[in-house]
Amino acid sequence: xxxLSKELTELILPxxxxxxxxxxxxxxxxxxxxxxxxxxxxxxxxxxxxxIIVDKFQTVAKYIEPTERKPFxxxxxxx
Length: 79
Fold this sequence. Notes:
The chain contains two helices and four strands, in the order ααββββ. The protein is an alpha+beta fold. The strands form two sheets. A two-stranded antiparallel ribbon has the order 1-2.
């Protein structure tokens, strides 16, 4: 994790790349815009991490669209 974390030093990911999805009180007012901004951050992180070599191995990172299904860990659905 250290090599991945190191690449994020001084990185600022804007929460409103495509516009703010929050009102003045910080409450979500546009869920679709929130998802679009989140995707931008995920793609940006994947691009950065895919440039890293760890122990002579290329790192491969990819943004995956979220789904309504619960994620699987080690072949089992998370509760």
